[in-house]
Amino acid sequence: MTYRRLRDLREDKDLTQKDIANILNISQRGYSHYETGNNDIPTEILIRLADFYDTSVNYLLGRTNNKNKKEKVKLGE
After folding, report:
1. Which of left, alpha, beta for 37 (phi over 0: left; psi -120 to 50: alpha)?
2. Per-residue pLDDT at 69 exceeds 80
3. Superfamily of domain 2-60
4. How far apart, in whole angstroms, are the C-alpha atoms of residue 26 and residue 72?
5. Rounded to whole angstroms, how far apart are CA atoms 16 and 57?
6. What residue spans define the domains of the chain?
7. 9-44: per-residue pLDDT in tens?
8. Under 8 Å between Cβ of 36 and 3
């Protein structure tokens, strides 16, 4: 789910994988592996993506369907 959300958020902003890779200072290929699920996303990158898209890490991880950055998820959910 994380991977699909990353792609959807990127496409909603009409950005390419290369655009996001440049923002993150990584290669396009490296970023592509995050979107396809071939590589786990490091915590630092996940936080930067959440900040860039003005959403929560919980949303990116599929722990909530609410894009609101301030939503809290209870432990055990």
Report:
1. left
2. no
3. lambda repressor-like DNA-binding domains (1.10.260.40)
4. 30
5. 21
6. 2-60
7. 999 999 999 999 999 999 999 999 999 999 999 999
8. yes
